[in-house]
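Supplementary Methods S3. Complex input for the FE2/S2 (inorganic) cluster-bound model.
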Amino acid sequence: MSGVSDSFPTGREAEPSPHACRLLVCVGPRCDAEGRGRALLAALREELAANSDAAARVEVTTRDCLRACTRDPIVRLEPWGNLFSDPTVEDLLRAASAAVLES
Ligand code: FES
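Predicted complex, serialized as structure tokens:
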């Protein structure tokens, strides 16, 4: 599946990505306490699987904790570092597109 991968910190993060940006979806104990982090991850993957243009620009990875815990799922947009609390898939893809266009 292009543009979508699972990766927990392995030291490979420093490798250059062919994608314009990366969404780090937290599936840590607070973000996923009610399964909401993984539900957001699944919805994001589903959208990217159906949208090859977005999948070519956006890589999706997971993290155990982004150290920005709330009671809602947290996502970080790299390389800019923008944090989103309880975003929708549409929010994330819109923000990713805007950030790429502005860079
Ligand atoms: S558990 Fe998600 S930011 Fe900490």
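Helices lie at 36-50, 52-57, 89-102. Residues 19-102 form a domain with the Glutaredoxin fold (CATH 3.40.30.10).
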